[in-house]
Amino acid sequence: MTIRAVVKGVGHYLPERIVPNSEFESSLDTSDDWIRSRTGIERRHIAAPGQTTSDLGTRAARAALADAGLEPNELDAVIVATSTADLTFPSAATMVQHALGMTRGFAFDIQAVCAGFVYGLANANALIASGQAKRVLVIGAETFSRLMDWTDRSTCVLFGDGAGAVVLEAGIGAGTAQDRGILAADLHSDGTYRDILYVDGGVATQTTGHLRMHGKEVFRHAVEKLAETAHAALDKAGVSSADVDWIVPHQANLRIIKATAQKMGVDMDHVVVTVQDHGNTSAASIPLALSVGRDRGQIKPGDLLVTEAIGGGLAWGSVVLRW
Ligand code: UT7
Known about the structure:
Layout: E1 2-13, E2 17-20, H1 32-39, E3 43-46, H2 53-68, E4 77-81, H3 92-99, E5 106-110, H4 116-129, E6 135-143, H5 153-156, E7 161-173, E8 181-189, E9 197-199, E10 211-213, H6 215-237, E11 246-249, H7 254-264, H8 275-278, H9 285-295, E12 304-311, E13 315-322
Parallel strand pairs: 4-5, 4-6, 11-12
Antiparallel strand pairs: 1-7, 2-3, 6-7, 8-13, 9-10, 12-13
Helix pairs in contact: 2-3, 6-7
This protein binds oxa(dethia)-CoA.
């Protein structure tokens, strides 16, 4: 008998404003063709002025709670994975907790950049498995548009805003890979690479700063490390890539998504791809893909999923779960 964190509900929210690649052509030396062919991105959503990360996260949370048929005060914990909390503190999670009208339990943020949602799932699973919480809401929410240098074509065309959320609930499994819920997690970070993807502002500079990236280097690490961590998580879960129904990858670049699937020996028909519509939404990209993939009818109860992500830190990891 094993306690597993089982997905009870999923939901997402995307800001209304959609910016197609062509919109950058008038202000930057770039083209729809370059962005599409190098990244797979066609459009992204951008938050309205004054619309914050916790606003997006709250909307995604409400959708996930409605899907689960639960009220906010039935939750024990709220975890928000984000690098773009509204304020330095309090956490975006306490803001979401308050906006939901939840007055019990505890809430905190996880800052592992694009790997944040994978870290969030792993932590929520640990809280549930150890008996500290029965129901945990895990949200990935970002407004990366606020970190963009809009004159830097090598970064500003890549990112977008959005939020996704899942409600996890303790379930009793037999302890086998047939159980529903989170089966295994594999997490890593290595600060040796902190300079290849970072924001040049923060408390130290008393500015918000802008995202800076050595794209080629991050790309190289992504292709190497994502398949590795996914395989490690599959091993821990006692399954193989042949058992995978869906890879739900971090959505940064279609070329990375394809290369990782190929390394894992998984056909692209078994990969949930949303990068064309959302761009890179950092910690929000995986829960957005889970929610959209479910709504499209791709992800079904009982399916074996592997999520994998890498981002600033570098921080990376993978979670294997049965939906
Ligand atoms: O979510 C966190 C993890 N992040 C990632 O996974 C991102 C990983 N990196 C990437 O996805 C890719 O490296 C990029 C999409 C960022 C860049 O693609 P690339 O194929 O590695 O291009 P590059 O950086 O080597 O640039 C190739 C050329 C350069 O011109 P030169 O030096 O060859 O003349 C760039 O200046 O493309 C140029 N370039 C652009 N041209 C038109 C860079 N950005 C643009 C642009 N439009 N927006």
